[in-house]
Backbone:
């Protein structure tokens, strides 16, 4: 009887040991996958260090866009104290088409006797001025070359405050440089009724003007234009760090296409300023210019413009772009909410001036 009990206990012990061994083996196979493929167990399996997480990089975006951003050198002759003085201006440009049309800022090449474009691949080419638009400070150049890199473009790139942006250009002639920031504000009005700029904190210096502002995918969203300036206590003009501007792509592309086709760009204006109220739909009229087309048509401050020619309005960029695209003399019908009532206002488009 005693021997039978001992045998039973022994069998139970062996069974438990086998079960425990199977459990441990299964755990090892789960934790050490190499053993499942018969590759053996290397000595450093349990001393293995975890691989570093993938780093955040905008290399792919820059690889797509930077080859299309060029250096621009323009030479001019100024008269200083009855003497001729040669000056060279520095800027950047963006290759927009495979046929060699470039966009840059007008102030970069204004009064230039000659303009040279330096490509990222080392080529230096003379450029011809196709035309310019003072109101947007844009100029279109043309170069003759093969195998040009063209900046990635989409018809209406979405630009939101907080989006990551990259500014590409040749600041201070140190070579192509990338600065990174975010969109601080989209739709910043610089001149009444027309010029809607992208505000960013991506650093710009002399030489960045005319370069590309791209999103995190490398798609062009703007042409870098200006730094914010103010007056110090002694009334001297100074730059303000962290506030920089770019002209939106949709406007820049339209101006370029009109200059190529017609030799100049035209811009309509209605003579009002507007803003966005998150609590209401449409564009809130914040100011009406005295003697302008909007005042003559009867538009009033605090009116809410819901649509233009039955196109519903959602953003300032969309609104002012629609107006700017309109031809002077064209009639636009505005659907307006005034004190809770819907009225219709017909406005004759005027010519925007600098």
Residues:
């Amino acid at each position: 009887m005693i021997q039978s009990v001992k045998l039973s206990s022994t069998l139970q012990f062996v069974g438990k040991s086998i079960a425990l061994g199977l459990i441990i083996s299964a755990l090892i196979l789960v934790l050490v996958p190499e053993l499942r493929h018969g590759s053996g167990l290397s000595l450093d399996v349990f001393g293995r260090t975890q691989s570093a997480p993938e780093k955040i990089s905008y290399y792919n975006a820059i690889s797509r866009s930077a080859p299309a951003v060029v250096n621009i050198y323009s030479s001019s002759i100024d008269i200083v104290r009855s003497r001729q003085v040669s000056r060279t201006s520095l800027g950047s440009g963006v290759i927009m088409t495979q046929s060699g049309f470039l966009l840059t800022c007008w102030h970069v090449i204004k009064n230039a006797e000659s303009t040279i474009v330096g490509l990222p691949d080392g080529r230096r080419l003379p450029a011809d001025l196709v035309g310019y638009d003072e109101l947007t400070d844009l100029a279109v150049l043309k170069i003759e070359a093969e195998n040009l890199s063209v900046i990635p473009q989409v018809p209406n790139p979405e630009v939101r405050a907080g989006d990551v942006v990259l500014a590409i250009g040749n600041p201070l002639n140190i070579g192509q440089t990338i600065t990174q920031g975010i969109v601080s504000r989209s739709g910043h009005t610089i001149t009444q009724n027309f010029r809607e700029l992208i505000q960013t904190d991506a650093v710009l210096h002399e030489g960045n003007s005319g370069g590309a502002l791209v999103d995190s995918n490398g798609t062009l969203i703007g042409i870098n234009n200006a730094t914010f300036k103010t007056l110090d206590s002694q009334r001297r003009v100074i730059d303000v760090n962290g506030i920089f501007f770019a002209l939106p792509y949709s406007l820049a592309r339209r101006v370029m296409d009109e200059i190529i086709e017609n030799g100049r760009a035209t811009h309509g204006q209605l003579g009002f300023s507007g803003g966005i109220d998150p609590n209401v739909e449409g564009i809130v009229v914040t100011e009406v210019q005295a003697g302008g087309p909007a005042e003559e048509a009867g538009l009033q401050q605090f009116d809410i413009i819901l649509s233009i020619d039955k196109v519903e309005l959602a953003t300032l960029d969309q609104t002012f772009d629609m107006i700017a695209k309109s031809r002077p003399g064209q009639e636009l019908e505005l659907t307006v909410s005034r004190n809770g009532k819907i009225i219709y206002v017909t406005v004759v488009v005027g010519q925007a001036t600098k």
Notes: The CA atoms of residues 231 and 237 lie 5 Å apart. DSSP finds six helices and 21 strands in the chain.
